[in-house]
Design a protein that fits this description.
Layout (H helix, E strand, L loop, with lengths): L1 H22 L15 H9 L5 H14 L1 H4 L23 H4 L4 H10 L19 H15 L8
Helix pairs in contact: 3-7, 6-7
Length: 154
Amino acid sequence: MRNAILALMVLLFCLSISMISCTKNEENGKEAKPKEVNEVEISEEVVSEPKGEGDLNRGKLLYNEKCANCHGPTGHGDGPQAAFLDPKPTNLSDTKYMSTLTDEHIFKTISEGGIAVGKSNLMPRWKFVLLENDIWTVVAYIRKDICECEYKGS
């Protein structure tokens, strides 16, 4: 019973963060509207993946704002909320593991939530909060600064 209450509290916390993030777009202070996504747009985004320094800075900002609470500021899965989660968040700095994941897999995990890729259902779906390009900037940041790795196959 205690674990169920704890899991519910964590879920409510994640939902409240998602709702707060969804109400304001920090760049321009206007209401943020979820962008409709279809497969054609996603495949086009793969080609135009962000690589500029400004995009990586934005990726870091978004990561720290949305991901670090659970995955930790350096991606070790040791954020302040990680103690309350079972299973523990993925160690995004694990180069060996992260090299087995495609950028599209990481994108799907962030966009659709952990349950979409067989991970924890406590990992929220960020597609209702972040724009596609913002998710790609987080993927690029994770690749360049957290795991410092590229996809090398499984």
